[in-house]
């Protein structure tokens, strides 16, 4: 095991409130990371863009992002983190998921 943690920080365009398009876009960015990268850091609110209008997006779509992150982590064998809008207890939160 290497004693060096290799991190890729992704800075990219985000498509306003277009979760499916953003997830597809960021999967392509994750896929481009070198095989020896240990951790991929995605932008804040990468799935929607920073929004004060999250109530206009169905909660089940918002809350699917952590599952997507886990799926990408398994598929690409990397730790992946990013913040996303999350709906819980009738409130919207900007949560960091890893």
Structural description of this entry:
The chain is of the alpha/beta class. It has three helices and four strands. Strands 1-2-3-4 form a four-stranded mixed sheet. Helix 1 packs parallel to helix 3. The radius of gyration is 14 Å and the shape is elongated.
Short description:
This protein is α/β, with parallel strands linked by helices. It has helices at 19-32, 59-62, 65-76, and strands spanning 7-9, 39-41, 79-88, 91-97.
What are the segments in which pLDDT stays under 50 over at least 5 consecutive residues?
A: none
Strand order across the largest sheet: 1-2-3-4
| Distance N to C terminus | 21 Å
Q: Give the overall shape.
A: elongated
Number of strands: 4
Mean pLDDT: 91
The radius of gyration computed from the alpha-carbon positions, rounded to a whole number of angstroms, is 14 Å
Written as H for each helix and E for each strand, in order along the chain, the element string is EHEHHEE
Helix count from the secondary structure assignment: 3
Main sheet makeup = 4 strands, mixed
Strand-pairing-aware structural class = alpha/beta
Content of β-strand: 15-25%
Q: Helical content, roughly?
A: 25-40%
